[in-house]
Structures are given as structure tokens and as C-alpha cells.
Amino acid sequence: MSRPAVGICAAVERVRWAFWEETVTMAPRSYSLAVQRAGADALLLPPDEYAVAEPDSLLDRLDGLLLAGGSDVDPPSYGAEKEANTGTTWPERDAFELAMAGRAIERGIPVLGICRGMQMLNVVKGGTLDQHIPDALGSEIHMESPGTYGDHRVEIEPDTLAAAAAGGTSLGVKSHHHQGVDRIGDGLRVSGRSTDDDVIEAIEPNAPDTSWCLGVLWHPEEDPADSVIPALVERARTFAADRIAP
């Protein structure tokens, strides 16, 4: 049987290497390696204006969709004004991911949002974001120095998609973020929180018979033992088989 195809929505960033400075579409290799290790083809998806209007043009080729981490979500995407601590944003990426994720959910294509990707899933469903979590907490969140991940624990509600995907209700995770979910989106529920600061760490549909859709604030791609991305790939494999079944 052929491998399922999982699309990874690419970031847009300004980068420099050797003599060059360019705007590029990219994703850390840890995402594609995690998808490939789990047994799927990893396809990098750059923002596409055509797909914003016609997301099925890409979704017809996919069995799963992964919204990766990256720069801050543009506040106008969820009806807010940009605050001082919000960094560089790429509205074209937001528009692409909103269209792709929204239509994928409608079609029942499995969707996983990681860090920024979880925030995007909340925005897709009409929710809002906290643009700088430390302001609400009154302290820094579980992050190490720039370019590194902080280790902490997450408690997950039992009998949830998050618990099934993570393989338990209490686990150590790696995080690096400063934004998160504020008002939860329509039809979503909180299924996981950080144990040390109660930050929302997992969201999913509140109806068990809806499509496979999960958002996690931590970075499962950074931990080869984490089972969240393999859970997405397994669901993508089932979706692919159902689609070609007579």
C-alpha cells in the first residue's frame, strides 16, 4: 500500500546564508522527518493565493494536514489590533492556513496544529489569541533561551483525542512560545493544560463524532518518542484507505 501524503504548511521568513538574504518558504526539518518516520510522505506547502480561494486544489492530493509552528499570527486574522509584544507577521500565510484548515475540517481530512498551528485552529473556529501570555501570568512562561525548547509537563483530560494521540494523560513536553489561546473557538474544547501555569496546551472538537482535528501547543516534532505526529499519520493512512475503497 502506498504511503499517505501529509502536507506541512510552510513558514514565510526572511533568512540570510552565505552572500544571500531572501524571503523563503521553509519548515524545520524535524517536522518532515517526524512525518516520514511515522510512515507518510511529507509535502511542504508554501502559501498560495489560488488555494486561498480554492483549497481543494491542494487538499485533493493530501491525506492529512499539519500546521507547523513559526511567527506570530497576524491579529487582524481574529479581529484584534497588534500589540507591542507581537512580532513579525505574514498575513499571506495566515490566509492560506485558514483556508486550508477550514476546508480540511469540512472534508474530514485529519488536521494537526502544532504551537502556532494550534493557535490557527482556534482562529479557524472563531476564537482569539493571547498575544503575550507572560502579561496575563505575571511571569515568564516555560521557555529557555532563544533557539532552545523548555521542558515541562502537561496534564490531558482522559478519554479525549489528545490523550489517545499522546498515549496518556500526563507527559513531559518541549515548548517555545509566547502566544496562546484566549477565547476558545466555536465547537472546540480544552483538553490539555500545562501543570505549572495552567496555559492551554491542547484543543480539539467537543463532539466525538467530528473529524480528527487536534491542536497542541508543545512541539512533538522535537521528541522522537512523542506519539502525536504518528497518530496523525495513522489517521491519514485510514483516510487514504477509505478514500480509495470501492
Give the key terms.
Rossmann fold; 246 residues; 29% helix; globular; alpha/beta; 13 strands
Verbal overview:
By secondary structure, the protein is an alpha/beta fold. Helices cover 29% and strands 27% of the residues. The protein has one domain: Rossmann fold (3-Layer(aba) Sandwich), CATH 3.40.50.880. It has helices at 29-37, 49-53, 56-59, 91-107, 116-124, 133-137, 161-166, 228-244, and strands spanning 5-9, 11-17, 20-26, 41-45, 64-67, 111-114, 129-130, 150-156, 170-175, 180-181, 188-194, 200-205, 213-216. The protein has a 9-stranded mixed sheet, sandwiched between helices. Strands 2-3 form a two-stranded antiparallel ribbon. The mean pLDDT is 91.
In short:
This protein is α/β, with parallel strands linked by helices and 246 residues long. The chain is built from eight helices and 13 strands.
Helix/strand structural class = alpha/beta
Spans of at least 5 consecutive residues whose pLDDT stays below 50 are none
What share of residues is helical?
25-40%
- The CATH architecture designation is 3-Layer(aba) Sandwich
CATH superfamily: Class I glutamine amidotransferase (GATase) domain
Strands of the widest sheet, in order across it, are 4-1-5-6-13-12-11-8-9
- Rounded mean pLDDT score: 91
Radius of gyration: 17 Å
How many structurally independent domains? 1
Biggest sheet statistics: 9 strands, mixed
The top level CATH class name? Alpha Beta
